[in-house]
Amino acid sequence: MIASTQTNHPITGGPIGTGGIVNAPRQIETATARLKAAGLRITQPRIAILEAMIAFGQPASIERIHSELSADSCDLVTVYRCLAVFEELGLVRRSFFHNGTSLYEINLAGTNRYHVICKASNRVEEIDAETISELRSAVLKIEETLKARGFTDVSHMVEFFGVSPQVIRSAAELTPPPFPTPTR
Length: 184
Prior knowledge:
The protein has helices at residues 24-37, 44-56, 62-68, 76-89, 129-148, 165-174; strands at residues 60-61, 92-96, 102-106, 115-118, 124-126, 160-162. By secondary structure, the protein is an alpha+beta fold. It has 2 domains: 1-108, Winged helix-like DNA-binding domain superfamily/Winged helix DNA-binding domain (Arc Repressor Mutant, subunit A), CATH 1.10.10.10; 111-175, 2-Layer Sandwich (Dna Ligase, domain 1), CATH 3.30.1490.190. Helix 1 crosses helix 2 (44-56) and helix 3 (62-68) crosses helix 4 (76-89). The radius of gyration is 21 Å and the shape is extended.
């Protein structure tokens, strides 16, 4: 029996949130095709979660993803379960804040995107293409070396953390000048 939150028909709506994401319908189609290929049903909660993640366009915590969903779309436990399934299928990639909080990002292309996360503001910035190219080359070389040594199912997780220049500038602007020492 199919519950009212499930559907087997194609998605006709656009992305939630800020909208304007050109490839969102295509990304939803790709994701739902991968779910179907894995033998999973296409449910309204799964679609809502995927739409939210596509709309974000960067890593987000489970709580943030849940907060962007409509109140009646699904509960927090469903978001946890769906993201676990999505991660297992490679639809999402998990990364972490410096405090250990899990972040999830849509990963339909199958290539890792690398970010730097500000320790002070938790702002996530994607690393520039040139640096990513160098990093991917180094990671690929390491993975190939490990495979040559007999490791199988090799994967990696690379995270960068730092304090952003914007935070440093803001802190400098807010710091009052020292009191002058009295001269006698």
